[in-house]
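Why should sequence recovery work at all? Because a backbone constrains its sequence more than one might expect. Tight turns favour small or flexible residues, buried strands favour hydrophobic ones, and helices have their own preferences. The token representation captures these environments compactly. In the example below, the structure is given first.
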């Protein structure tokens, strides 16, 4: 059985977006570009969609959310919100790789390389076909590793994501910038989720996907500061 109505959202990268798909088309969608503030923006975004189509909202039978890779906070905002809605509405929630949804939003007829600049010479990448089908699992690569993709056969590739700036330079003629937005689109996610059966959606857990550990770490007790009291005795 296929879903009739799908609500989807993405908060993993440089935008907060949500979309409502019903019987073959996206009937409501909103997308706001932002680097931070996804937690404050998502619920009002969903509320606006509900107000605009309350009858269709009441018929939602599947939820879809991007699970990363992306920012740690952004990934958890979307996953937590959709898990909560899943419990409240009694409908399943499916998780999708951020990079695949970006690839599906591409417009170039070339093979696609999704590359998200995660800083510190790290790019979250995934090679996909020209239709957006993944050819590999999501992978963290350096810039040098990105540039080496397809070098053996001289493959021409369209690059989607914030990493395109570093990869698509005049010297790297095999790569070109895809005209797709450099972040996932909930409308693309909703449409893709609606193409799957309820059984297939149930097999896609909404579990965060990270390609590297968080930058924040627990303090090292061996490096804690020591202060002296009035008598000169040390205290942590």
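From this structural description, the recovered sequence reads:
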């Amino acid at each position: 059985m296929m879903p009739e109505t799908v609500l989807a959202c993405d908060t993993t990268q440089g935008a907060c977006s949500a979309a409502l798909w019903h019987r073959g088309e996206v009937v409501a969608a909103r997308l706001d570009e932002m680097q931070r503030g996804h937690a404050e923006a998502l619920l009002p975004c969903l509320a606006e969609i509900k107000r605009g189509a309350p009858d269709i909202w009441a018929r939602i039978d599947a939820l879809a959310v991007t699970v990363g890779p992306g920012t740690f906070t952004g990934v958890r905002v979307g996953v937590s919100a959709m898990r909560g809605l899943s419990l409240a509405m009694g409908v399943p929630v499916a998780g999708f790789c951020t990079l695949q949804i970006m690839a599906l939003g591409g417009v170039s007829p070339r093979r696609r390389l999704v590359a998200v600049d995660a800083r510190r010479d790290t790019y979250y990448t995934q090679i996909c076909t020209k239709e957006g089908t993944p050819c590999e699992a999501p992978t963290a690569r350096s810039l040098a590793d990105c540039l080496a993709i397809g070098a053996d056969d001289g493959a021409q590739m369209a690059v989607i994501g914030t990493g395109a700036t570093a990869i698509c330079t005049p010297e790297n003629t095999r790569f070109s910038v895809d005209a797709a937005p450099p972040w996932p689109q909930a409308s693309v996610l909703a449409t893709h989720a609606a193409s799957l059966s309820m059984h297939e959606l149930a097999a896609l857990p909404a579990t965060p996907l990270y390609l590297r550990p968080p930058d924040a770490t627990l303090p090292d007790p061996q490096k804690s500061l020591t202060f002296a009291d009035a008598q000169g005795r040390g205290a942590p």
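A few observations help interpret the result. Residues 224-230 have pLDDT under 50 and may be disordered.
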